[in-house]
Amino acid sequence: MKNVLIFPCGSEIGLEINRALAHSIHFNLYGGSSVDDHGKFVFKNYIGGIPYIEEPNFIDELNKIILENLIDFVIPADDSVVLKMAEHQSKIKATVITSSAETCQVCRSKRKTYELFKPLIPTPRVYELPEKMNFPIFMKPDKGKGSKGTYKITTKDEVDFYFKKDPTLLALEYLPGKEYTVDCFTNRNGTLLFAEGRERKRIYNGISVNSKLTVNSKFQELAEIINQTLSFQGVWFFQVKERTNGELVLMEIAPRIAGTMGLFRVSGINFIQLSLFDRMGIKVEILDNKLDIEIDRALFARFWIKEQFSDVYIDLDDTIIVNNEVNTEVIKFLYQARNMGKRIVLLSRHKSEISKTLAKFAISEMLFNEIKLVGKDQKKSSLIDGKSAILIDDSFAERKEVFDELHIPVFGLDAIESLLVWKV
Question: Among 175, 268, 325, 367, which is least packed by CB within 10 angstroms?
Answer without folding.
Answer: 325
